[in-house]
Design goal:
The structure holds 2 protein chains of 2 kinds. By secondary structure, chain A is an alpha+beta fold. Chain A has helices at about 5-10, 75-80, 85-90, 100-115, 120-150, 155-175, 195-220, 220-230, 235-240, 245-250, 260, 280-305, 360, 365-370, 380-385, 390-394; strands spanning about 35-40, 50-55, 60-65, 180-185, 185, 325-335, 335-345, 350-355. Chain B has one domain.
Chain lengths: ~400, ~325
């Protein structure tokens, strides 16, 4: 057991000193000495370069401090020194598993300060891309959870779907990972001919495969239920206090989705439901993700049906010089709320750019929720957040 | 060939047979690794290894050459004797139990009259190897893995032994040769029919004893990254892997011997005489395939759930079934 002085030490920034207990009500059961353990940053299940400082009493975790910064690239500072359009490819490097949403958030913020009008076809293409990206992020995240629970096969089935969606994204944008497709004022290029029919055909197949290979295979498994039920349980108040957004928040029963509550792009014209669940545990957040996959498929079908003709790029002039002031863009990324705040001083590069990344903000729940759980439960809880290294470190 | 007659006399016969069994065990491990990767490949809709040799069949050879040429790294703070002794302590018991398994009529290295007791006693030494590996490595991850392994292997020994007792009661003998002989005359005489719940318990305990998914907590690659074997490299790691895979083959062989009639053919007219080891091989391969099937399909349990399953479900079940077996033997 820790001595009283050690427990009252403040958390050192580099995490080397043993910090205070995040949950002082949890004590070693038998009054025995606890074990400090470093998990990561080189750890196969850490979603990238995350380091967790754990204090273990046997298998019970008593303290869990995440240490971030191993992938820090000064994205916000770099954004101050580049002209507005040149920041879009940088945002691709934030949450690299769902980069379309980063681009979307950034261009929304700049268009806000520019007061730009976007052609409707461009808006529809943006929604199409966002929802394809959401599929390509949600389906593997269910596979990641199973990988962390010890089953290796579902991730490969999931990546088969991501791979096919990436083929579409590649056909549309010309890149597989770092798209740089959204531009301030529209999108880079029009859709290639025939792609909408191909996507619609693919979705017909996906519906069946997702049901059999993922929903039935995963949620029907007795061991999966035993491992995820009541693990990482949060109350809605706790989740709101910690600023949790996205599937973990909706898993606690809070009905909040940026797409519906702070509508952007053409989401108000589309018909979709916000999926919620009351349990507030890991299983609930995954039920939300599965529900959102069905909703995304629904949205894409509507977009394909309603896709208008016309230009895909507004004429904003060669050099972008917004008025002095603030621009704000927030989008519902697969992990939660991704928001960008751009402060313009009237020159052709931003005075300040701030990214609010859901991977970073949701990480707070580790300190609060993990203590008291067993060591292997950390992995499903991390899977519930589904953080991305580029997102939390910027 | 008369000058080879001395091989048929006692210590030589035993030593030769032991050498053959050891050779087969090591080869079995290599082939099982290959089989595991192929099975995994087909379950995951890919080919698996297919580059080395025809259809990738020489892959185990390449793996072994790679392991032998790799450097053995031991952690600076490791307790070297314990660290290096652990793989041996894990491998020897597994190889030793093969000595008492009858492969075909008359083809058993040592027909001892307490073979089942020998199996139980020797396999429990394997837990010692896990503890040695975890303690000797001086690593937090290893220690956690070793503690998990010790708890798991000792807990599951209990249902494993209890599930054997039904067979022992029906046969009235602890010799595996007697057990197999008692199951002759068609597949309805195999003990899996009379002792089906015990077979299930034995199978699950065997999974846990060999640390296979869904009971691979001592390895727990997503949280403790390999557990007790995290610090091993090169051939020491290879020996641990060989022990694990040979252990899997051993458990399959034992369950076939006890519950699936050993080398007995499923129907009388399929009797191959001396070549009945083919039946033993087919049945063992089938059981090993189910092990691999489970390995690539299921996620892992948590320690508390594992203990609950062992002590609260399987031990009471075996005890109840033992009473039922005893009552049935009294009545019939």
């Amino acid at each position: 057991m820790l001595s009283e002085e050690r427990r009252n030490e403040t958390v050192a920034l580099d995490g080397t000193a043993s910090g205070r207990l995040a949950r002082p009500d949890i004590r070693s059961e038998f009054g025995l000495e606890t074990m400090d353990m470093n998990m990561g940053p080189q750890h196969p299940a850490m979603h990238g370069l995350l380091r967790l400082i754990l204090e273990l009493d046997g298998e019970t975790v008593m303290r869990c401090d995440p240490v971030m910064g191993y992938l820090h690239r000064s994205q916000e500072k770099i954004a101050e020194n580049r002209m507005y359009p040149a920041v879009v490819p940088m945002t691709d490097r934030l949450d690299y598993f769902a980069n379309i949403h980063n681009e979307h958030g950034y261009v929304l913020a700049v268009e806000d300060v520019l007061d730009a009008e976007i052609p409707p076809r461009a808006e529809y293409i943006r929604v199409l891309m966002s929802e394809l990206m959401r599929l390509a992020s949600h389906i593997p995240s269910i596979g990641f959870l199973m990988l962390e629970l010890g089953a290796f096969t579902p991730i490969l089935y999931a990546f088969r779907e991501r791979e096919r969606i990436q083929n579409f994204l590649e056909a549309i944008t010309g890149a597989r990972m770092m798209f740089h497709y959204f531009r301030i004022g529209g999108v880079k290029a029009d859709l290639p001919p025939g792609i909408l029919e191909e996507i619609s055909e693919y979705l017909d197949g996906l519906e069946g495969r997702f049901q059999t290979d993922t929903v039935d295979l995963v949620t029907g498994s007795e061991i999966y239920v035993a491992r995820t039920k009541d693990v990482g349980k949060m109350t809605p108040e706790q989740a709101l206090d910690m600023g949790v957004t996205g599937p973990p928040l909706r898993g606690t029963g809070v009905d909040f989705d940026i797409r519906r509550d702070y509508p952007y792009s053409v989401y108000p014209e589309l018909d979709f439901d916000v999926v919620t669940d009351d349990a507030g545990d890991v299983a609930a957040s995954y039920r939300v993700r599965i529900g959102e996959v069905w909703q995304s498929i629904r949205i894409i079908r509507q977009v394909i049906e309603k896709m208008p003709e016309g230009p895909v790029m507004a004429d904003l002039g060669r050099r972008l010089r917004p008025r002095e002031g603030d621009g704000f863009g927030r989008v519902e990324s697969p992990r939660g709320e991704f928001a960008v705040h751009v402060v313009s001083d009237g020159s052709d590069s931003a005075y300040r750019v701030h990214y609010r990344d859901p991977s970073f903000c949701n990480m707070q729940l580790l300190q609060e929720v993990v203590p008291g759980h067993y060591l292997p439960d950390i992995m499903p809880i991390l899977g519930m957040i589904d953080p991305v290294s580029g997102g939390w470190d910027k | 060939m008369e000058f080879l007659n001395f091989l048929n006399q006692e210590p030589f016969r035993f030593l030769l047979a032991f050498g053959v069994v050891l050779f087969l065990t090591l080869n079995l491990a290599a082939i099982l690794v290959m089989g595991e990767r192929k099975v995994a490949g087909y379950i995951q809709l890919r080919y698996g290894p297919n580059r080395v040799g025809p259809r990738g069949l020489l892959q185990p050879l390449a793996d072994i050459i790679k392991l032998f040429t790799k450097e053995n790294i031991s952690p600076g703070k490791a307790d070297l004797w314990i660290f290096l002794g652990a793989p041996i302590a894990m491998f020897i018991p597994v190889a030793a139990v093969w000595l008492v398994i009858p492969f075909a009529p008359g083809a058993v290295v040592a027909d001892i009259n307490v073979a089942i007791l020998f199996f139980v006693a020797v396999t429990s030494i394997g837990a010692l190897g896990v503890i040695m590996a975890g303690y000797g490595s001086r690593s937090n991850f290893s220690l956690l893995g070793a503690l998990r392994g010790a708890a798991q292997m000792i807990s599951y020994e209990v249902p494993l032994i209890l599930s054997l007792l039904g067979v022992v009661m029906l046969t009235g003998s602890l010799s595996l040769v007697d057990v197999v002989n008692a199951q002759g005359g068609g597949f309805w005489n195999w003990y899996v029919v009379l002792q089906f719940p015990m077979f299930i318990v034995f199978y699950i305990s065997a999974l846990a004893e060999t640390k296979r998914v869904p009971f691979d907590l001592p390895e727990g690659e997503s949280e403790i990254v390999g557990g007790y074997m995290i610090e091993y490299s090169g051939m020491t790691w290879g020996l641990i892997q060989a022990a694990e895979f040979a252990g899997m083959g051993l458990m399959s062989g034992i369950s076939v011997t006890l519950f699936l009639g050993g080398w007995q053919p499923p129907l009388e007219f399929l009797d191959l005489g001396q070549f009945n080891w083919v039946w033993f091989g087919i049945k063992t391969a089938l059981i090993m395939f189910t092990f691999q099937w489970i390995r690539w399909s299921l996620p892992r349990l948590r320690m508390d759930q594992l203990m609950d399953l062992g002590w609260k479900v399987m031990v009471p079940l075996t005890l109840v079934w033992l009473v039922i077996t005893a009552a049935a033997m009294l009545v019939f």
